[in-house]
Amino acid sequence: MRIDVVTLFPEMFRGFLDGSLLGAAQAAGLLDIRLTNIRDFATGVHRQVDDRPYGGGPGMLLMPGPVVECVESVLADAAAGTAPHVAMLTPAGRPLTQQVAEELAGRDRLILLCGRYEGFDQRVADTLLPDQISIGDYVLSGGEVAAMVVIDAVARLIPGVLGDEQSAADDSFSGTERLIEGPQYTRPREFRGLKVPDVLLSGDHSRIAAWRREQALDATHRRTTLSAHFSGAHTPAG
Ligand code: 6GU
Q1: Each residue of 174-220: pLDDT tens digit?
Q2: Residue 118: pLDDT above 60?
């Protein structure tokens, strides 16, 4: 899989991309991640990429020209075949979920478009018609951290990237039921008086599977209840 990141801050990605999981995936040829700087597509002596919003208001917007031309140059680099999927990181996008990550992991080529400042000129989306993705209901100062979240969630779903093929399949939010994983334990058998549940030491694999399923249903139910409680508590109506 190839992922192109279009950003004003490619240096933010270096340590992240060289890290253990992604570094190994790239070295093994499973993943090819490239960075392209929007500023390289700016024109004029000042290489300006942002400007003040028409109609007034705080902050600066990314100008459509450098952004669209940067993405088009990456698109033009596409080998004949499947067109890359263009995803724009924005808090206005559809929420990133494990299901969305699975969908993106099924693509051959992905372009991740990161914004900075107060956002993009609307004509970026109107021209490129990207898949708009948000990583949650809070505001980040740029799409770069969100793009790293997408890359992490997607890369570990590519066959061969994780050592054990079963480990992604067993994760929280995976499978048809998308349950949260229940508690897990390793050595020691007792820590500060807290014991590993006997069933996990029983060697009885069907009992262990049944216990894990029960714990996963429980954890999922608890979180659903909690999130309903907290979202309810903070509505304007109280
Ligand atoms: Cl994708 N970008 C920004 N700037 N803020 C966000 C986000 C993205 N997702 C949640 N907040």
Answers
A1: 888 999 999 999 999 999 999 999 999 999 999 999 999 999 999 99
A2: yes
Strand intervals (E) in the chain = 2-7, 32-37, 50-51, 61-62, 85-95, 109-114, 131-134, 190-191, 194-195
Condensed to tens digits (0 to 9), the pLDDT of residues 218-234 reads 999 999 898 888 887 65
Q: Are 157 and 101 in contact (CB under 8 A)?
A: yes
Q: pTM for this one? A: 0.93
Instruction: Report, as residue numbers or ranges, the catalytic residues.
Output: 91, 118, 156, 171
Model confidence pLDDT, tens digit, residues 64-81: 999 999 999 999 987 666
Count CB neighbours of 223 within 10 A.
Answer: 13
Structural domains of the chain ordered from first start: 2-155 (3.40.1280.10), 179-233 (1.10.1270.20)
Q: Is the CB of 134 under 6 A from ligand 1?
A: yes
Rounded to the nearest angstrom, the distance between the alpha carbon of 72 and the centre of ligand 1 is 23
C-beta of 130 in contact with ligand 1 (< 6 A): no
Q: 78 CA to middle of ligand 1, Å?
A: 27
Closest ligand 1 atom number to CA of residue 136: 10
